[in-house]
Write a structure and sequence with these properties.
Helix content: 10-25%
Oligomer: single chain
CATH topology: Jelly Rolls
Order of helices and strands: EHEHEEHHHEEHEEEHHEEEE
Shape: globular
Structural class: alpha+beta
Number of domains: 1
Distance between the termini: 42 Å
Number of helices: 8
Length: 311
């Protein structure tokens, strides 16, 4: 039986507890492309942003694939295509690494996978992938949350040993609803109040209302960060890696500028999903991969040319 080290949604009380897992899992600068300074920054903040990781030509190709996926799913109303809560516009398309050969190759790109392996100290597999689109003027907000809290409670992810990789395909400004992150918040786990209803994902992917921290806990986390909230702003082609327990969210997009990204979640092969700690049934495969799990074999990707020099 797997011990629940991070109980949540099993009480009416909120609890803040210290993280019980390492942040960098036994790796050093000799184990991948990240420098000692990169690793220290990630360990302290819970995320690291590389601007212009991909070239403008790379971004054009990725945006074309994203638009093609959006068009292919225009009339798809299955659960794996998420639409804006007050319109029929597509917000997310899940499992793109399985449905799109370009995205599959991109998810296996050696430059991305080697960073994930270095951070997690092991081989990795893809536990979730998606493309996100936040349209101008009407893209809705997404409230503060830790991905790990949901993945632990609803998917059975045992430990904090996963990392999200967001490839930014449109310029991210302060005003078009960029991702916001609380630095250092990954060092604490917010055990949330409430219980998880059946098929909660159908509502939470449009507007998350369970598994979100209370105001006091959020204020405490921001206070610990010296009052700082960072925004993942940067040009198209930038790449953000953020730790699975980092508290993050995004505001609505009232600007005319849309925001889109490709999103890969790399999980340690030593951290495979178990039964959900909520006691409920597992969420669908498109949200939490369980079938035919095997380590990603990093590939040299000749579709793209790297422009970034990791420090």
């Amino acid at each position: 039986m797997v011990v629940d080290l991070y109980p949540s949604r099993n009480s009416t009380e909120v609890q803040l507890m210290e993280r019980k897992d390492p942040i960098i899992h036994g790796s050093s600068e000799q184990d991948g492309p990240l420098s000692k300074a990169d690793l220290l920054s990630y360990e302290e903040k819970g995320y690291i942003l590389f601007e212009t990781f991909f070239s403008s030509d790379d971004v054009i190709m990725m945006k074309e694939e994203l638009q093609q996926e959006m068009e292919n799913n225009k009339y798809n109303h299955q659960d794996d295509v998420i639409r804006e809560p007050e319109s029929d516009e597509i917000r997310s398309v899940f499992e793109v690494h399985k449905r799109n050969d370009f995205m599959k190759r991109l998810s296996q790109d050696r430059r991305l996978v080697s960073i994930a392996q270095q951070l997690l100290g092991s081989q990795v597999y893809m536990t979730q992938s998606r493309i996100n689109f936040k349209p101008g003027f009407k893209g809705k907000e997404f409230y503060w949350h830790s991905d790990f809290e949901t993945w632990h409670v609803e998917d059975g992810m045992p430990r904090m040993r996963a990392v999200s990789c967001s490839i930014i395909l449109t310029d991210n400004y302060e005003h078009n609803g960029p991702l916001m992150l609380i630095p250092g918040s990954h060092k604490w786990f917010v055990s949330c109040a409430g219980q998880t209803p059946k098929d909660n994902f159908k509502q939470s992917l449009k507007k998350q209302e369970l598994g979100v921290p209370d105001h006091d806990s959020l204020k405490w986390l921001v206070d610990q960060a010296g009052g700082q909230i960072d925004r993942a702003t940067g040009p198209a082609g930038s790449v953000l890696f953020f730790e699975c327990n980092t508290m993050h969210g995004s505001s609505g997009n009232m600007s005319p500028f849309p925001r889109s990204n490709v999103f890969f979640v790399y999980n340690s092969i030593e951290n495979k999903l178990t039964q959900p700690f909520s006691g409920g049934k597992p969420r669908p495969e498109f949200l939490a991969n369980r079938q035919q799990i095997k380590p990603i074999e990093p590939q040299e990707n000749d579709m793209t040319k790297q422009t970034v020099q990791l420090t």
